Amino acid sequence: MSISLNKAESNSFNRRLFLKFSAMAGALLINRGNKPGKTRAGITGIIGTGEEKIIRTGCPAHNCGGRCLLKVHVRDGIITRIETDDRPGDEVSDPQLRACIRGRSYRSRQYHPDRLKYPLKRTGKRGEGKFERITWDEALDIMHGEISRVIREYGNSALFIPYGTGSYTNLNGRWPAVRLLNLLGGCLGYYNSYSWACTNIATPYVYGTLNTGNQRQDWLNSRYIIMWGWNPAEMIDGTNSAYFIKKAREKGARTVCIDPRMSMSAVALADEWIPIRPGTDAAMMSAMAWVIITEKLTDDDFISRCCSGFDSTQMPEGCEKEESYKDYILGTRDGIPKTPEWAEKITSVPASTVARIAREYATLRPAVLYQGYGMQRRAYGEQVVRAGAALSAITGNIGIPGGWASGLASQAGSEPFWTVFPVGKNPVKTSIPVFLWTEAILRGKEMGPADGVRGAPKPDNNIKLIWCIASNILVNQHSNINRTIKILGDEKLVEFIAVQDNFLTPSAKYADLVLPACTQFETWGVEDGWKYGEEVFLTPKIADPPYETKSDYRICADLSKKFGVWDEFTSGGKDERAWAEWIIDNYYRKTRFPEMPLFKNMEESNAGVYVKPVIEPVVALAGFRKDPGRYPLKTPTGKIELFSKPLFDMNLPEEIPAVPKYITEWESPFGREAEKYPLQAIGHHYMSRVHSTHDNNKMTMNAFPQHVFMNDNDAAERKIRNGDLVRVWNDRGALVARCRVTSKIMPGVIDIPQGAWYNPGEDGTDFGGNINVLTTERWTALAKGNPQHTIMVQVEKYRKG
Amino acid sequence: MEKDYFSLVLFTVLSQTAAGGLILREILLHSDLDYQISKEFRVLSLFITGIIIALALGAAFMHLGKQVNAVHSLRNLRSSWLSREILFIIIFSATVLLYWLNEKFWNIQVLNSILSFTGLLAGAGLLTSMSAIYMLPAVPSWNSMITPISFLITSAAGAVSLLVLLNAFCGCVTAKTLLAILAFAVILSLITSGFMFSYIKESGLLVFFIIRILMGLITLILIFLNYLNTFPNKMTALSVLFTTVLLTEMAGRVIFFLNYHKSGL
Amino acid sequence: MPQYAFYIDTSACSGCKACQAACHDKNNTRSEIKWRRVYEIEGGGWEQQNGAFISVPFSYFISMSCNNCGSPVCVKACPTTAMHIDKNGITVVDPQLCIGCRYCEWACPYNAPQYDSIIKTMTKCDLCEDYLLAGKKPACADACPMRALDFGTFEELSRKYGEEKRLLPLPEPGLFDPGFIIKPHRDAGRATNEKVKVAAKKEI
């Protein structure tokens, strides 16, 4: 199939596709009744008599954390059924990569009637969602014109491609655009992510690396596993992570879930569920340390050999008299011993439970303390990351099979690559923390190191042009929507916004130009692990892009022509398939996966995935533990830093202490704000969506509709019954959604799953149930990250008018 | 409960009234009650019973998803109470039709006796099957003796108020005994609702309960006044009485259907 | 005729509904028609002492489609014999006979028969009979990411997993002889002493 069609071809092609499209959409509506033995492929006749092919491919990569295998049935270019991995064996070393409800319900997204079809140009005001159809030529001319103009008038650092993870197949998403802009002088860079800003910055202060995770099969060597704010069964933190925990339990491991909600993981994987007040995890961790230290359950050998800053005998040079970790825990300096009783008042966890968990973790070795990312996506997320790492350290659960060093825990030994598409070097050296892009719009030129600017003293410009690809960050996923839409609505601030996506998302509504991208089934891609994993998927093109949609790569390639850099951009005319071949043959095979089949063999064999079985799981920091002198960590002392001199030198002890501390959040049940807003709100990663992807998927949303989850006592107090519409508000905004009254969340806390599409009413109240009308744009002290779970709100039954 | 349960409310109340009507008619005809039964009454009672059972059948038919397949519904007499109910209702309807034709035109005495017999059997069979249908182990809220008792009460109350009305239409004097029986039935009916009061309150069905009690009280007042011969125009009074009885029973039947709870799931 | 049955490991079920999604996709059923349903069971409550929580609720999930009962009440109840046991021992609905009276829906304690308001007849899980004839397991059993579902003849399954069929709030299995074997959740014992309910019935 040639890449570009002439107009006549494309019209008749589109007509055929339109029929197939609506046929499939119709087929999803009609149930043909119960006829065993008959294949239900929808409305027969229109689909055609072509034979059915089965293609094994990766699930369209989003940012769920899963990398699963799909068996896609295709007839006449239409996907008729989706099955999952059925390779025989299903051993722990190489288990089946089974898809979740999202992968299995993908047809409802693939054939959604709302899919963008044509390039659109804004006609109304930004945010109104009024557009007119234009041709690709016109659209690319506009892109070319605006990018050139902004470079000329302001400079390359006024260009910004925001964070977005809607498309993770390496060849798609923002990466081709980054490559293109890098050929044109570059664009403003960023660091961190919305997932793990705090742990990304905090973990290296302790370990000097992010690769603190063992290969997951190692969990089967553990005797005790604490799943702290971790919900792998729902968000899919790596395909099969939940399954590995199940296997560990079968071998005798005891598991404990510590979470304000009785999550799906708490139900399926935990021997015990301990509800904890959101934002107070560092307090419980400190109290656990108190028990472990005072009851002499510490691994003294490991501490003395491998740690620094534990007590006054091992403080770093220049800080000998400062408060050590032990000083903080025992309260020798601040006069507050971090006892379980102290923690009980803060966390709502009974003191006896805190003490018992501490003893279990310290004595049932080797033990895992797995930290989920929800608890670091908070005001003082950096502290809880270090506090957890400190617990692993003082119990010596690091560098041994069955242990776990905590922290960000990207897989050690063989770090997965999330992007292998070569983007080249960015001539613009400046980068900002990813969460501060609105600051860079308002006052980029005035930002500096205090705002976390790296690479240069300050950006040369404010952000003037945004090219948002496979991302709903602009409006939906960034904090404080009411603030962001005012900023984006002002055309004098950001002068041009282009959004490239499959649907007209809330972010796309604020675009000046909307570019229709095709889905990942409709182009080539390569997927590898997300944070762990020994797999590489080849995702071939299964269906043709409908209407005038194009792949992200293709859009950039066509745009590169306008800029006269087509040859460099396409590296001599490579199309998507050629890039997939290059990545496998010249990158993976030459680095992590030398035994991987060649691209053409993978394509022919229709295996879909190449897996390196894990026989002996790699253990992070094992070499360091054995010989810390020979394999020092990349920290100033070469050891695990429980006291960090670099942090001490920042001289901001209230918010960035040198040892991990529990700090009361700036918006908490303990502050004055609690009088007006007595409930804590959190927004977990929902089973029906991957962030904001699939919010319009009928199948997944029918199974898990958007709700405000509320404890039955809190609901009864407010005369709210299950199914009532409720209004949730604070000073930053308000939303209305249906309430699910449940006992599975602790009193005082509500949960509004994140990712629902913003849908404002006339007065700005959001009727989509998007938690970001309530979140704050204030950033965390150390990582300059997003504290999106630190929210206080009030709830009432919703009355119209 | 499915959204269109109301057609079943109509079906059960009307068919129970009709079945009770025919049974009561036969009892009155063959009893030693000092009761005036005219030829007009003999014909009219069958005619009206026929209309009511036809309306009931219409309501039931409306409830079906695929009406064209209704011809198959006698295929499982072996084990399905629903199949049996349909058989009984067919026999009942045919009986009423033939009975009416015979009483109005043919006047064959033997046929009267035969049809009286089949009518009683079909009526009893209809009431039995209907009770058995709802006494499903999977629906514990229906699976108790309250179900057949309330069906019988509906039957009795509907039948008595109907025949009393038709009797007045034919210019005869109403036996006070019948009014007393009616009052008794209505009181029993309201008591059965009382058993379910706590559930009714929990499930937001209070409005139907209130309608039921209201209608029931009006019924009792009307009965009392009729008993005292207060009304000059008996026809109107008894028509209203028949209506309030039906409404009382329908409100109760709505509560019954909305009280559909599976055992466990 | 061997009784086909499901093994339901409620101790490992996370309620993720991948089984439900696999069923929808394979059978092209609309989201309202759920041949497989995942029930969320909640019980117990919260108890506080000095502000700390000393007692917490419990919960588990039960994923259920049709249990291919040995004494199917739906077959007994159906007036037209549309609901019948076919030649492979699987209870199925014949849409040519069904009148859409929904009596089987009332009779089934597990909510297996599902009414389709567009074709106006009943539909239900057929245990992926076409897959069985091809030697495969039903779509749901192979879908579960937690490997909490298995399928086979009751005999095969009972040899692997035992014969437990009791788990509140499921009804007493004796009357129906359902084809399933349950592994009870760790908190199933609490269900006998504390009230349990199905959460969010309207969402199922």
Write the layout of secondary structure elements.
The complex is a heterotrimer of chains A (801), B (265) and C (204).
Chain A: H1 7-27, E1 52-58, E2 69-75, E3 78-84, H2 101-104, H3 107-110, E4 120-122, E5 131-133, H4 136-153, E6 159-160, H5 175-183, E7 189-191, H6 197-207, E8 224-228, H7 232-235, H8 241-250, E9 254-258, H9 264-269, E10 272-274, H10 281-294, H11 300-306, E11 307-308, H12 325-330, H13 340-347, H14 351-363, E12 367-371, H15 381-394, E13 431-433, H16 437-443, E14 465-469, H17 473-477, H18 481-489, E15 496-501, E16 513-516, E17 525-528, E18 535-539, H19 552-562, H20 566-569, H21 576-588, H22 599-605, E19 609-611, H23 622-626, E20 640-641, H24 645-649, H25 673-676, E21 679-682, H26 698-703, E22 708-711, H27 712-717, E23 725-730, E24 733-742, E25 749-751, E26 792-797
Parallel strand pairs in A: 6-14, 7-13, 8-9, 8-12, 9-10, 11-20, 14-15, 15-16, 21-25, 22-24
Antiparallel strand pairs in A: 1-2, 2-3, 4-5, 4-16, 17-18, 18-19, 21-26, 22-25, 23-24, 23-26
Helix pairs in contact in A: 4-19, 5-19, 6-15, 10-13, 10-14, 10-15, 13-14
Chain B: H1 6-30, H2 39-63, H3 81-106, H4 109-134, H5 146-169, H6 176-195, H7 197-202, H8 206-227, H9 234-258
Chain C: E1 4-9, H1 18-27, E2 37-43, E3 47-49, E4 52-55, E5 58-64, H2 73-77, E6 83-85, E7 91-93, H3 103-107, E8 114-116, E9 121-123, H4 129-133, H5 139-143, E10 149-153, H6 154-161, E11 180-183, H7 188-193, E12 196-198
Parallel strand pairs in C: 1-11
Antiparallel strand pairs in C: 1-10, 2-5, 2-12, 3-4, 6-7, 8-9
The helical percent of chain B reads: over 70%
Helical stretch count of chain B? 9
Oligomer, anyone?
heterotrimer
Q: From the coordinates shown, what is the CATH architecture of chain B?
A: Up-down Bundle
C-alpha Rg of chain A, in Å? 26 Å
Tell me the name of the CATH class of chain B. Mainly Alpha
Major beta sheet summary of chain B:
none
Question: What shape does the CA trace of chain A take?
Answer: globular
For the secondary structure, the number of strands of chain A is 26
Work out the strand percent of chain B.
Answer: under 5%
